[in-house]
Amino acid sequence: MSTRTSALDAVVYGVDIQSGDVRGDAPSYALVRYDGDDVARDVVSHRKLRRLIDDEGPAIVATDNMYELAADKDELIHFLGTLPAGTKLVQVTGDQQPEPLSRVAKRHGIPYGKEPMEEAEAAARLAAHNVGYEVSAFTDTTTVKVSRGRSTGSGGWSEDRFTRRIHGSVKKRAREVESELEDATLEYEKDVREAYGGFANAIFTVEARPQDIPVSRNRSGDIRVEIERERRDGIEFRPLAKRRDHVLVGIDPGTTTAVAIVDLEGEVLDVWSSRTSDTAEVIEWIVERGRPIVVAADVTPMPETVEKFRRSFDAAGWTPETDLPVDEKQHRTRNHQYENDHQRDAMAAALYAVDAHEDQFDRIAKKLPPGIDRGEVTARVVAGEESVEAVLAELEDEGDGDEETTTHEPRELTAEEQRIKELEKQVERLQSHVTTLEDRLAEKDDRIDELEVELDETRRKERREVRRNREVTRYRRKAERLEYERDEAREKVDELEQKVDRMKALWKLDHSNFSDVSAEKEGLVPVKVVEKFTKGAIREADDQYGLAPGDVIYLRDASGAGRSTAELLAGFEPRVILKEGGLSDVADEILFEAEIPIGPAGDVAMQEVDELAVAREDDVEAVIDDWHDRAEERRRDRKAAMVDQLISEHRAGDDEV
């Protein structure tokens, strides 16, 4: 049966000082590369070790003392910060109070020797079996900063344009980063410092590790992207996943076998069920996750299948006084996730077993001196039915195993020693009474525990509400933006519909012989209104309803026009121009030369419809005829003047002769 875990799916480095000191100039290391099958050994310098870690990116770098890789805390934090994204530093001997490597190796059945290469191999094998603590100096929060990749400079005629381009590039890249974080459904907060033409920088605080963020560190041209994990206040030790030294196991046998793993603190570590796994596979699954000290069932007496599992682990058994009711199992597992009733029953059995042994676990913990493995002592007291004192004495003997031991012959106790023994028995009786009182106190503490559970649930709900409100705010902003775009589109549509209506009205007037035009409009002519005799007013009228040759144009204010304005209007070749107010001499001359009739608007009866107007055809013809009469007279006057001028010039020439 294999006890290997997922750590062996990748490479593990075991490291130990071979010679020198990390505080010195040139330490060398015994390096063992272990992949679960093959072991490769080498002696390398500190620089080569770092290069190998960077090149291969092992899953774990294991050591018995993390300060063999760094001289002090600051160097250790720097070392952790330079590890590849998927590489962990693991101290296999424990956390703040490590044990001797020999003791840990012996407890887990790993070969051990005192040579540096043998210690490095032991560290690699222990880490591969998920023994030890990950050393971490960083949280799971990462800062992504988008900023300028170059200085904006000072002076120069193109400085403003250059600065605007850089800040615009930063803004564009920041929006791309935000979009990538949104697509990855990562929680983040954004802090932007705006500047001329865009952003000076944008900082995203993301709740994820760098390897989980779809943005990479780079610098190109105008921008640069920096990624940095948030540091902890100190060094944190986290036990490796899944593997726990000593656990309680709940088993629900049957067609579907379910198993739940719970640690000594009552935390559910894992739960699993299967319809096809045999006994060996179930045992292997349990072994990969810990060493059972109690195997529990939710019914009494213990089923034979569960009893076989208990005997295979040489663990203590636990069953309730009566079969656990479904409602009690549901209540006890309400704060944990499970996939089916079988997993729920196994989990309930394990949790009730923890409740039953809680006081015993606490008493054992209080008697342990610093540096002693609580799980090992608890296992031997609970499963092996040994006293705490006997286990501690044996562990001390194991720690001094390398020293020469001596035997002592039993002797007869003195009166004083006998008295001490009697007092010790009395102390035990008093401790038993204290235990009873503590049990009563525990009953009163149950209510406090329930309230704490309710408080935790309330806090979780509040956190979910905060996340939901954040999502609502984001979607509300998006909705407001879409509503604004919709309103703009509607205004544009309204404007175009009005223009279409004006064009339809004009078309109807120009096609009065069609059946959909009423008889009342017969004998009328459309008039296109120009508010002022300016280029802008003429072009605006042309944009709204079009000016074409043969149109009747009405100038509300004909004053002030110059040569170019008159030439612009003459270029449309109108049939006649009806005007209000006086016309400049220049404009009058240009229009006369273009033979465009002009007449007073007061001589024509007009009726205005929005920006358009209609007039009687007879009135328009009368104005045109009147202009032709005046134009003919104007031409005659002009010819007479020319003749008079020629005669005057001729006479002046004769007088000079």
TrEMBL record:
<dbReference type="Pfam" id="PF04312">
    <property type="entry name" value="DUF460"/>
</dbReference>
<protein>
    <submittedName>
        <fullName>DUF460 domain-containing protein</fullName>
    </submittedName>
</protein>
<keyword id="KW-0175">Coiled coil</keyword>
<feature type="coiled-coil region">
    <location>
        <begin position="413"/>
        <end position="506"/>
    </location>
</feature>
<dbReference type="InterPro" id="IPR007408">
    <property type="entry name" value="DUF460"/>
</dbReference>
<feature type="coiled-coil region">
    <location>
        <begin position="167"/>
        <end position="194"/>
    </location>
</feature>
